[in-house]
Amino acid sequence: MRQLKNICVYCGSSPGSREAYAGKARALAETLVNRGIGLVYGGASIGLMGMIADHVLRLGGRAVGVIPEALMHKEVAHYRLTELHVTHSMHERKMRMAELADGFIALPGGLGTLEELFEIWTWAQLGFHGKPCGLLNAEGYYDPLIEFLDHAVTEQFVRPSHRSMLIVESEPEKLLDRFADYRVPAVKIWVEKDET
């Protein structure tokens, strides 16, 4: 069984249109705290980002934010976190979050959430890390994306083994159980890390 000390959560700096998204963020926060798992996230105090961090802290858990200098004021940095790391660039932010986390979960979010998820999943596909990546599919938010990804497999642009690296569940407990049992699939890697 895989040991999960910290989970990186990607999610919106907006609360979204449904209260259920906030409810799922709080449910994930409770599951993390109950399992002694720390939160690593983008460091903002607003939207789903702020909600999950606030709930983790309210429950006595650890919340670590990582935010680039350029977004300190735009995203309204959260100053009551267990730790707040300020980076020089977005790239440095994503690298730091990846270093701190033992797995990656995307809650509902917009372009930034999708970009972060796809980058970390691509790193897994390329063999740069062996950590689990998942979607917490609140209220079916990611159903159209999941359908598209399955279409990409059918059209042979995504290999089934790579598609299987993205774990999808609608409940935090089930998702984290699957993270704990995650084994990196045996996949052919197109390029070795030292060749990039």
Give me some keywords for this one:
196 residues, LOG, 40% helix, Rossmann fold, seven-stranded parallel beta sheet, alpha/beta
Summarize the structure.
The protein is built from seven helices and seven strands; from the N terminus they run βαβαββαβαβααβα.
How much of the sequence lies in strands comes to: 15-25%
Q: Catalogue the unreliable spans.
A: none
E-strand count? 7
Strand order of the largest sheet: 4-3-2-1-5-6-7
Order of helices and strands: EHEHEEHEHEHHEH
Please render the helix and strand layout as text:
Layout: E1 6-10, H1 19-34, E2 38-41, H2 47-58, E3 63-68, E4 83-87, H3 90-100, E5 104-106, H4 111-125, E6 133-136, H5 143-154, H6 160-163, E7 166-169, H7 172-180
Parallel strand pairs: 1-2, 1-5, 2-3, 3-4, 5-6, 6-7
Helix pairs in contact: 1-2
Task: Kindly describe this structure.
Belongs to the LOG family. InterPro entries: LOG, LOG_fam. The protein is of the alpha/beta class and 196 residues long. It has one domain (6-182): 3-Layer(aba) Sandwich (Rossmann fold). The protein is built from 7 helices and 7 strands, in the order βαβαββαβαβααβα. Strands 4-3-2-1-5-6-7 form a 7-stranded parallel β-sheet, sandwiched between helices. Helix 1 packs parallel to helix 2 (47-58). It is globular, with a radius of gyration of 16 Å.
